[in-house]
Rhamnogalacturonase A/B/Epimerase-like pectate lyase domain-containing protein (Cladophialophora chaetospira), 811 residues
Amino acid sequence: MIPFISLALALASLFVVGAHSAHFDIPQVDEVVKEAISEYSAYLHYHAPANASNSTFTTPRFTSLVALTDPPYWFADQPHQGKSAFNPDPNYVVWRNVKDYGAKGDGVTDDTAAINAAISAGGRCGPGTCASSTTTPAVVYLPAGTYLVSQPIIDYYYTQIIGNPNGRAVIKATAAFSGAAVIDADPYQSNGNQAWGATNVFYREIKNIVVDLTSIPASSAATAIHWPTAQATNLQNVQINLSQASGTQHVGLFCENGSGGWISDIVVYGGKIAFNIGSQQFTIRNVQINNAVTAINQLWDWGFTYKSLQIDNCSLGLDMSALNQTGNGQNVGSIILLDSSFTNTAIAVKTAHDTVPAPPSAGSLILENVALSNVGIAVQGGNGATILAGGSQTISAWAQGHAYLPDGNRNYEGFYGGNGRGNLAPGGKYLEQVKPAYADYTTSQVLSARSLGAKGDGVTDDTAAVQKLLTQAASAGQIAFFDAGTYKVTGTVYMPPSSRVVGESYSVIMSAGSTFSNVNNPVPVVQVGKSSDSGLIQWQEMIVSTQGSQPGAVLIEWNIAASSGSGMWDVHTRVGGFAGSNLQVAQCPTSAAPNPNCYAAHTSMHVTQGASNIYLENVWLWTADHDIDSADNTQISVYTGRGLLYESTSGPAWLYGTAVEHHSLYQYQFANTGNVVMGFIQTETPYYQPNPDARNSPYPRMASWNDPDYSTICTLGGSCDALALRILNSRGLYVYGAGLYSFFNDYSTACLAGTNCQSQILDIENSSGIYVYALSTVGTTCMLYRDGKCIAEAADNVSVFPDTIVMYQSG
Ligand SMILES: *[C@@H]1O[C@H](CO)[C@@H](O)[C@H](O)[C@H]1NC(C)=O
Ligand SMILES: *[C@@H]1O[C@H](CO)[C@@H](O)[C@H](O)[C@H]1NC(C)=O
Ligand SMILES: *[C@@H]1O[C@H](CO)[C@@H](O)[C@H](O)[C@H]1NC(C)=O
Ligand SMILES: *[C@@H]1O[C@H](CO)[C@@H](O)[C@H](O)[C@H]1NC(C)=O
Ligand SMILES: *[C@@H]1O[C@H](CO)[C@@H](O)[C@H](O)[C@H]1NC(C)=O
Ligand SMILES: *[C@@H]1O[C@H](CO)[C@@H](O)[C@H](O)[C@H]1NC(C)=O
Ligand SMILES: *[C@@H]1O[C@H](CO)[C@@H](O)[C@H](O)[C@H]1NC(C)=O
Ligand SMILES: CC(=O)N[C@H]1CO[C@H](CO)[C@@H](O)[C@@H]1O
């Protein structure tokens, strides 16, 4: 999250509430449904497993012919035993099948009310009723079918809206649809505010869904998804169909602000704008946009990394030329386009960097491995000038902005030397792994934690049951499924090779007890393989946490030499700030002196020397700065030692869309390593620092852990706060987009005015072959520090809100 910083954007006019004619044509049964019926007729007599009848709902799960067409999907077909451990209502229901709430999905019935009922039932954290909550999670499942909606589907806090990967639900707006967006993740309230502060919208997902606006007249400014969100959110495997008629006013995704975030595996057809998007930072991977007028309209940002963006048949690919209200400054800080393509598109990228070169570092741009096919202009300047020619060719590597190179620093515009990508990019593109859906698995290939006897109630010691689940599932080739809940463990749980581990609504493994109490004797909570292990590890949609004082807890220790296909998707750590953690406002109020009861973890994640093939996608390692379950996001002081310590000697590693926040010694540290690609990486320094500062961290320096020695590092004067990124004795690190932020000095943002909340934030020691693209920093006087010297001063590289350099190459 970030503190409230008003960006004073005139956004209201961008988000026109749809006003449609009153006429309403009753649509015929949709082609998709017909097709689904014939395609899946084999399943007409398919029934849910007997255990599913244990559902809390009395309504039968299958209520109509169309419902019978939902193809098998283990996630939906298994018994639903998810719970919210710290919700006071023992009968609170996590799993909701929209059909149990009356939705038909028949392409004829208006399902708006039924879907909204499925989302809102159970006293959840709704718009205008609460600031945020972890105790009312929900999984809202839409079986295959076409769901007509005439008004917005209002997404609630901590919700996963999930369709069937074997037959994605189509949410189809009626011709007379009226409202801000077909799915609204943060609806505007009558007071003009968003329902939830966009930078605090955590733990959200929409996946396996098609949103279809093609019945809405092309002339209506209709929007498919309104998505101002923050960390631990994702859109995945979503298709958006907009009008392709000439003059179309449709918009696919509208995101006016927030702090995220992850978007992947998206296809959009048509529209005036496919993505109308602005936020601090985002990582966006594998997005295809076809037949839009403007594919991406970048409203503003500090830094966005687009990987495998495929734009086809649009007039304009990416418009990053937005100006601020007075028209004399740019709104977009920086953009990276990696391994992307533009086809049959007049202008690939439009910038204002040349004509409105203010602030001086705004509009920083990296194009690396971007294929053009029948493109008019690759990069067009503000006055229409061609800055980089189009055609049919591949742009190897091109940059615009302030560059710091071995031969000096300068305002750069042009091609740059490519990096040796090596085994990070088999086939030329940096490797990508789609989050496994296990779409062809049956329920017999799933082992449930609760069925095996784990309680997941946040109280019972589940160590043995969790271990049994992980061991048994791996040896049987089954999915180890953590039904929604909080699984308390008092010792290490070990994830063996061949693990496929899946959570539900971000199931939590929470450590407690004396095993993890020794600050000088760190012990892993979840051990991903042992140091001699090799094999497959796939882990998704979970959280690892601690309860109370746990200064010896290493939440995730990754040791395994992983085989191809391995990875960690949407797995997060959360230290403090939630119900049940005993690290909330009551226990850990912001205080003048650190409270040992709030020393909550030694390290969030440790990748050890023997680990290899480490693939992370959308991973947020968070020490809470505020209490999500307080009435108004009240700040707290919770202390952890280290963020991500990465020590794999060989790699390769891919860290896409990772963030590490509020650890007292550092956020990221790479020691004695290399062969890592990452982007976008985002950090925040603890808000309490420099009280105490990094030299006086409650976590004593451990030389064997390569902890920084701040007594020698802090030579610049100013606050000696935790480094965001420390690179030690390493070579071959490629950072595509970094946002390293320091917003506070002892809970005061006054230091932002002088850009001196701390004096250094990125430290490179005894290393070479380090490449950092689109580096943005906030609140630090020196942006990049190497072997005792400041290389890039913030004052020389002022951008929209942060300070930015487009490129650093260490030589
Ligand atoms: C389903 O309910 C029956 C009867 O109440 C019970 O014996 C059984 O254990 C339940 N199964 C599950 C998976 O909860
Ligand atoms: C996000 O934008 C809305 C609309 O302009 C504004 O009310 C809100 O304060 C903004 N939030 C943040 C965190 O900037
Ligand atoms: C969405 O549009 C694509 C391309 O026009 C089409 O192939 C697909 O069938 C459409 N899907 C729906 C649900 O209309
Ligand atoms: C290109 O986009 C336009 C506008 O959406 C559409 O009418 C046309 O059919 C598209 N061409 C192809 C080949 O898809
Ligand atoms: C627009 O940007 C320019 C250049 O940074 C700045 O001087 C001006 O104050 C900005 N205007 C607004 C309304 O923020
Ligand atoms: C139903 O649940 C029981 C106990 O939880 C389990 O042993 C059995 O395999 C389950 N049956 C099916 C069809 O999933
Ligand atoms: C510098 O790095 C190299 C290679 O990583 C290492 O061998 C050497 O010991 C390091 N020197 C110091 C002083 O740490
Ligand atoms: C490397 C580089 O381009 N540095 C520039 C930083 O910004 C100042 C003023 O804004 C310029 O004078 C420098 O040339």
In short: The longest strand covers residues 386-405.
